[in-house]
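Tutorial, part two.
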Amino acid sequence: MSATTRRSLLAGAAGLTGAALATSIVIAQTASAAGTGAGWLNVKDTPYGALGDDRTDDAPAIQKAIDAAGQGDTVYLPPGAYRLASPLRLRLGVTLRGDWHPRSPVRTDMTASYLRPGIGTFTGEALIVVDPAPARGTSTDSAYGGGPRLYGLALDGRDQRATTGTAIDGIRVTPGVQDLGLDKVTVWRFTGHGLNAQNATAFQLTQVHAVDNEGHGFTWGDATGTGGGLVDADLFQCHAQGNKGHGYDILNPDAVTMVDCRSESNAHHGYRITGVNHSMVLIGCTTDRNGRDGFHLATSPGGRFLQLLGCLAGRDGRETATSLIPYSGFTVTGEAAEGVVLTGCSTSTGRDDESGDHSPAYGLTTSALNSVSNVSVVGGEYLGTTAPFQDLGAVVVRHSGVISGTHRDTGIEWDQHDVHMISGAAGTRRDLEFWSRGKARRWALRTTDAAESGAGDGSDFALVRHADDGTVLDTPLTVSRASGRVSLTTPGLTVTASAGPGVHLVQHRPAAHGYAVTGAGKTSRAFQSRATGDSVDRFAMEINGTQTFGPGGGTGRDTSWGRLGAAQIGSADADIVVGLAGKGIKVKEGSNAKMGTVTLTGTTPVTVPTTAVTAASRIFLTVQSPAGTPSGVAYVASRTPGTSFTVKGMAGDRSTVAWLIMEPA
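Running the prediction step on this input gives:
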């Protein structure tokens, strides 16, 4: 639109004619000159003269308009096909504005309006180059006059290379550029990167699409891992698709936020973040069908934190079928990754549209991290065709709400475990603490700092009790990792059984000790029992083996049973009572026993050998089977203590007589 036409439209809309129109034009021109110089510059107007006919080299005309524009001015490109034989260069705060940018250039084939390099006639490193603003002598003035903007532009690379054979980037941002904005810009089919920037500060990208480029879709870094990085940047609803490198290649991010961005069908990683990560947040970013990892986070020492919220990785790792490397939805690796947090993120498996293979192999992979690093996973769903997690770095801390599963040929095999992992290497104390709101810690589940050798020792488990001020009181419960032995401290263990048995000990090792009590002294107690309502124990077992009994209630125990002396057991204060009819006392017979039988031979003494007989023994004789000429009389004729005794009867008596030895108490 020419300046004359624009004035006519404005005048008609305002109802101005004659002198009023002239006055309005003067006022408008004065305001424009005082504010932004030329204001709005149409590249097809005189004196610029761009044609947009897809034949003429429009680079000189457009560049002339850019050079004529002042701070805050807009260089406008009406719909057209602008062929360029050299790059357009911006450095001042000028807006280069078009009217169209397709999200899917493949479907539209960029038919409406675009800028493109000349076929076989382009000389330069990029279609658009952004240079730093001229400095005014101090570093704080380095952005003075800067802040260029690109809006509503469609850049079609046409798979062209420069006349020298080198690759062409869509947009090249040279080091030192600050305050660059890209809004609604599409970069398609360039032989280099879609957007290539080094040492960039204060970037603002909104709905920028990098599609089918031979390099990365977006890159703030280089192949050697040097060359600056990205600082103070915001990316919103950007899209990287079908690029032969990474979708997003970001080096040394510092104060970077990405929101609702997408990376799809790129040959390498969807998002590749490397170098020293000072601070970066990704919110609601997604991937699909990238050749390698969906999110590849490889950070270097000296960084701080990297946080992902609500990010989704789907069907990444398409190279898995032809590569020895199984890829993941999320991979955290590098020399150090301190404070990586995944909150509400998920990985979904699916069949690739082209190969038909399912991917990714893992939902989350970690490796090569230092011992103090951790990857915190809060909520979300993680799926993989091999396993949901491949924690090679042993640094994953899983919190409640994490769902995971493995994609099998028959369907998804869900992990039914809710796993909680505490950060910290072996040999360090790790606590899971429970606090009162607004107060202090009350309890802690602890793995102790005992060193581990790999033989099952170290890192005992403990339940720690804290006082109201948070100081440690004691450890009521500990479990030895080496032996599995459970230790309880005062006040011990109370078992309230709703059904029997209240405590059931099952021994799996022969000759093992199922229950053992070690007392601090001879007066310690091993066991006691009482019924509800009792104030005195009904039964107690002391460490010395004595057992005492009582009626319960408030009455003391009155009966004891235990060791009375060497080789003696009995009760010092109670009779032995057989209280059930039909029950009695059984004594084992045999060599050196205290009970047996003997056959009489009349008046001839019969010797009974037994070491059980003593000088004070009471020997009881009773006839069991009468024989011969039974008289019913049998008596002890003699005894040799510790050796034997003899028995006699009357003449002709051949009866079988039972004998029983008893000792006086």
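The chain has four helices and 53 strands. In part three we will examine how such features are distributed along the chain.
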